[in-house]
C-alpha cells in the first residue's frame, strides 16, 4: 500500500483536475452535458485511479490502475484538442494543461516500470 497523497504524480494530476474545472467555465453552456461533463469526468478519473491503485495490496494491481489513469490522460488530451479544434476554447487555455498531461503520462509510465520491477 502506498501513500498516494505523497506521490508527485497524484499531486500534479490533482492540479490538472482543478485547472480543467476552471477552464470548463470558458466552454459554452450548451456543452454542459456533453464535452464539459466528459472533460471533468476524465480529469477526476486520473488522480482517482492513481489513489485507488495506491490503495491496493499489490503492485500489479497498482500498475493496472495506473494504466486506467493513463488512458484517461490521453482521453482528456483528445477532448481538449477537440474543444480547441471546434474553436470552443483557445490554444492558450489548453496548452499548459496538455503540457502537464504529457508530463503526468511520462511520470505514469516511469512509475509503472518501477512497480513492475518491484512486484510484491
**Mean pLDDT across all residues, rounded?**
94
Classify the secondary structure makeup into a structural class: mainly alpha
The portion of residues assigned to helices is: over 70%
Gap from first CA to last CA: 10 Å
Features:
120 residues, 0% strand, single chain, mainly alpha, de novo design (two linked rop proteins)
Describe, in short, the structure shown.
This protein is mostly helical.
Structure description:
The chain is mainly α and 120 residues long. It has one domain (4-117): de novo design (two linked rop proteins) (Up-down Bundle), CATH 1.20.1440. Helices cover 75% and strands 0% of the residues. It is built from four helices and no strands. The protein has helices at 8-23, 35-54, 59-85, 91-117. The longest helix has 27 residues, at 59-85. The N and C termini lie close together (10 Å). The model has no long low-confidence stretch (mean pLDDT 94).
SSE blueprint and pairings:
Layout: H1 8-23, H2 35-54, H3 59-85, H4 91-117
Helix pairs in contact: 1-2, 1-4, 2-3, 3-4
